[in-house]
Amino acid sequence: MGCQALLHVGQQMLRRKVVDCSREDSRLSRCLNTFDLVALGVGSTLGAGVYVLAGAVARENAGPAIVISFLIAALASVLAGLCYGEFGARVPKTGSAYLYSYVTVGELWAFITGWNLILSYIIGTSSVARAWSATFDELIGKPIGEFSRTHMALNAPGVLAENPDMFAVVIILILTGLLTLGVKESAMVNKIFTCVNVLVLAFIMVSGFVKGSITNWQLTEEDIRNTSGSLCLNNGTNKGDPGFGGFMPFGFSGVLSGAATCFYAFVGFDCIATTGEEVKNPQKAIPVGIVASLLICFVAYFGVSAALTLMMPYFCLDKDSPLPDAFKHVGWEGAKYAVAVGSLCALSTSLLGSMFPMPRVIYAMAEDGLLFKFLARINNRTKTPIIATLTSGAIAAVMAFLFDLKDLVDLMSIGTLLAYSLVAACVLVLRYQPEQPNMVYQMARTADELDQVDQNELVSTSDSHTGFLPGAEKFSLKTLLSPKNTEPSKFSGLIVNISTSLIALFILIFCIVAVHGKEALIRQELWVVFVLIGSSLLCSLVTGIIWRQPESKTKLSFKVPFLPVLPVLSIFVNVYLMMQLDQGTWVRFAVWMVIGFVIYFGYGLWHSEEASLAAGQARTPDGNLDHCK
Q1: Which of 208, 314, 538, 557 has the fewest CB atoms below 10 angstroms from its CB?
Q2: Are 467 and 532 contacting, i.e. CB atoms less than 8 angstroms apart?
Q3: Rounded to an integer, what distance in angstroms lies between the CA atom of residue 355 and that of residue 622?
């Protein structure tokens, strides 16, 4: 009896969401277009990091070859972006990676993903608000900081911030109010700030190419030794190891190290995926918005870092404020005001990009019953998730007021990278699953996109699948490597499910050993080499098995190319970066997950909407819950 109860709970945790694709109506307001999504993605991704990060990475990791670091980071980000784009075409609903996990790998993984996305957005909002406050305070002579230190100091070192940040609270509350007014109004403000930011970055790029010199990419080690003081105008920044000079002064390892840091500069585009129920024609707008925003951000990062290292030798760059220092170096000191305006606009759009998706993920989880139902309440006039917006804004404001978030920022990385990994795995799984009659994500094939021939073909092929799926296929090497069917079956889908789990396991083993066994690898210890080579070969073998399986022929407005290689590469990049996070971050992550599991097992598991649907007759004919009805 106990085993049966345990099995029942296990089945409940793995139940998958039924997405009703035949209905296009939404409780939210469908008013955004593709340009709105591109502006949202660019504004969220192209934050204040572009004004600081390029200088720090060029100075310490890559030198002028930072442009290659950004190229590698952009390619790694595009892997995740393409996976999000395909799901945006498949399931144009609110929820982003939470929803994508729910329709593919089940409720528990979906809750874990959504719960960590909420954490990422809360910390992101709070930390950016404090950065906005600090930047503004710096511009006006630091009176806010002085007042806080004098009259509001908190004496709890290691727990609370030294000074509470009232201005950060005000900023969050203003933007929370803006988000409750309506999505169109929020998008308009975001577009204005994003356009100003892009114009400032364009000015920086043109200035760098006009005032810069290619000789700053060709300095030899002797030049650095003999003339570093005069090249840096004795500004005191030429301390530390300058490397070997030239375009790649720290070698290719420095470029890769810089790329790992630069990867986080492209985080933020996933906020586009939360707009599925607020955008017109989401099947096309979401993929285009994600890819276009990543492309624009890459051009901006590439251009600014190139301009910066052309204007000033890389070893002279100021790590904290490289652009004002570089303009001073070339005699354009007045340009620092343009940089200040641009950085405030960038922080504003980045803050809006963190706050915009947060209530939508909370709303999606509450509507599914995994979080408290009152959080799914929608304002009838503005069509926004009012309670979720106010609740998330209040929590972020309290965090910004009381805590110094430097130690928590890495937690954002875990949530984001976990979401990226799961979305890539979900794309891999779904592309090789059998279709069900008239139910397979056909919102991407609406009547206005299909001619009559295509519609007849759709009906005939869907009907034929009822008798197409075999009752039972025997496992053998031949069925594994050379399946007879040209269409996915239950058996081939099961092979892909198991193979994807094995790939995740092999990648995890490889990354743990590669990151935490570096010293043993340097000493060329046999066990490390054996584990790394073995896990790589096994991962390649299993990837080859997936490649041999028949792929779904479902027509979508956007598909990830080069399956199964691109999703596997995306999973590898994300897991490798997760393994580089320190032990304290993983302990905090565990604490957050314990809180989440208390909510899920105490409330979500028993109030899930899918439980009531499963109790009725809401299943597809074969009992799966991952297909659209």
Answers
A1: 538
A2: no
A3: 40
Q: Cα separation of 419 and 110, whole Å?
A: 9
> What are the pLDDT digits (tens) for 238-251?
556 777 778 888 88
**Partners of residue 628 on adjacent β-strands:** 19
3-state helix/strand/coil string of 21-70 = CCCCCCCCCCCECHHHHHHHHHHHHCCCHHHHHHHHHHHHHHHHHHHHHH
Average pLDDT over residues 328-354: 88
- Check pLDDT > 50 for residue 15: yes
Measured CA to CA in angstroms, residue 143 lies from 139, 147, 148, 412, 599 at distances of 10, 6, 9, 30, 42
Tens digits of per-residue pLDDT, 43-86?
999 887 788 888 888 888 888 999 999 999 999 899 999 999 99
Evaluate whether 563 touches 538 at the Cβ level (below 8 Å): no
The token duo for 298 is: 């890459």
Contact 250, 240 (CB under 8 A): no
Mean pLDDT, residues 396-424: 85
Global pTM?
Answer: 0.84
Residues 395, 451 contacting (CB under 8 angstroms): no
Please check whether residue 10 is in contact with residue 261, taking contact to mean a CB–CB distance below 8 angstroms. Answer: no
